[in-house]
Design goal:
- It is a single chain.
- By secondary structure, the protein is of the alpha+beta class.
- It has one domain: Phosphatase 2c, domain 1 (4-Layer Sandwich), CATH 3.60.40.10.
- Helix content is about 35%, strand content about 25%.
- It is built from seven helices and eleven strands.
- A six-stranded mixed β-sheet has the order 7-6-9-10-1-11. It has a five-stranded antiparallel β-sheet with strand order 2-3-4-5-8, covered by helices on one side.
- Strand 4 and strand 5 form a beta hairpin.
- The longest helix has 22 residues.
- The protein starts with a strand and ends with a strand.
Length: about 250
């Protein structure tokens, strides 16, 4: 597998409350995680960092015990939720903090996803960038119920209100999905600092281009900054490849 990952504070925020991790070459599954924290001063940064660490730790500890990848992801999300919720409950300064989270387990043939909130996963196959996750947001609920149009959803003033997050309640339910992929396909995980600034068609053109994986991520972040950089921007890309290592 080839991989590349980068985060940027953006042009408006003082703190970067996003977190991410990639563990590509471990067996039986590679791991990729992106989280976008929320809360008061420093709380979002704490929430995303705790959640990412808990997910990776759970998977590394339980991968040889839990044979079903979807159950492994659910256990990881539950572990992350407990850690963030317990920390928020034990500190007045962190009360109410939470984080979105999208996590993937992958092999050379399969991608397993689990997500909460509006951080997203996409898959590039045959030149087409397909969104694999469904945002847990108020605006997405309004769109799916027919109360607003797709165009109105893009510019809606409440588009950042999430309806589900890690750590804000004692229990949380995540959405699971499974996708087959092949040599050359690219899995993309990102925070909404990218997707709120860069349209899918533009993302597709960049990810499907001829540049290196790292250059593609740099270009995606550059486009988000050019559009205003209103939020932290985090992008993780995994390319299905028989070779190993970080993208050059």
């Amino acid at each position: 597998m080839h991989y590349a990952a980068k985060t940027h504070v953006g042009l408006v925020r003082q703190l970067n409350e996003d977190g991410f991790a990639t563990v590509v070459d471990q067996q039986p599954y590679g791991v990729a995680v992106v989280a976008d924290g929320m809360g008061g001063h420093l709380a979002g940064e704490v929430a995303s960092s705790l959640a990412v660490e808990a997910v990776v730790q759970h998977i590394q500890e339980q991968a040889d015990v839990e044979t079903d990848p979807s159950d492994l992801l659910v256990g990881a999300i539950q572990a992350a939720n407990r850690v963030v919720y317990d920390r928020a409950s034990s500190s007045d300064g962190l009360s109410g903090m939470g984080t979105t989270l999208v996590a993937s387990l992958f092999t050379s043939a399969h991608v397993y996803l689990c997500h909460i909130g509006d951080s997203r996963a996409y898959l590039l196959q045959d030149g087409q960038l397909k969104q694999l996750t469904d945002d847990h947001t108020l605006v997405n609920e309004l769109f799916k119920s027919g109360q607003i149009t797709a165009e109105e959803a893009i510019h809606h003033p409440q588009r950042n209100i999430v309806t589900r997050a890690v750590g804000t309640e004692a229990l949380v339910a995540a959405d699971l999905s499974h996708q087959e992929w092949s040599e050359g396909d690219i899995l993309l995980l990102c925070s909404d600092g990218l997707t709120n600034m860069v349209e899918r068609e533009q993302m597709q053109a960049i990810v499907a281009g001829e540049a290196t994986l790292e250059a593609k991520i740099d270009q995606l972040i550059a486009e988000a900054l050019k559009a205003g950089g209103h939020d932290n921007i985090t992008v993780v890309a995994i390319q299905n490849s028989s070779e190993r290592g970080e993208a050059s």
